[in-house]
Amino acid sequence: MTTLRPFTCDDLFKFNNVNFDPLTETYGLSFYTQYLSRWPEFFQLAESPSGQIMGYIMGKVEGHMENWHGHVTALTVSPDYRRLGLAALLMNFLEDISEKKRAYFVDLFVRKSNKIAINMYSNLGYIVYRTILDYYSGDQEEDAYDMRKALSRDTERKSIIPYTQPVRLEDLDMH
Question: Where do the N-acetyltransferase domain residues begin and end (predicted)?
Answer without folding.
Answer: 2-152
